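Sequence in, structure out.
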Amino acid sequence: MNTPLEELLNFSPPPWDSILASVAESFDCVTGTLHRLEEPSQTLHLVAHLGIPEALMPVIGVIPVGKGIAGAAAAQREPVELCNLQKDLGGVAKEGARLTKVDGSIAVPCLSGERLRGTLGIGKPIPYTFNAEEKARLTAVASRLAELL
């Protein structure tokens, strides 16, 4: 039985892997990442991951703001999406991102008010464009997570 996201958010400390799995499942996604911003270095540090190949762990463990999909979402403070990662890196994803076997992916900033706290990313195994409602819903989830990061 899956624990609803709101219930998971009440645990202390937050069960980040379970939270990420719940978010990914609610969007029919197979991969996900959650990064926390370390302000002094302006780097994103991996808090939780789902479905990410072990070979990518050294690459996604610490991401400079502005680099890759998560870093771009952090720098721009808005969703960054790639509808077909296997065919087009969109100028933001790194070649290694293809190892995820994900096509449709999106990363959103985790904002607490105006303060950047991290990023949340999810991905589907098929080419996919997230619609406005899905982007708004994921952004709302990310804002909720920002309060806990």
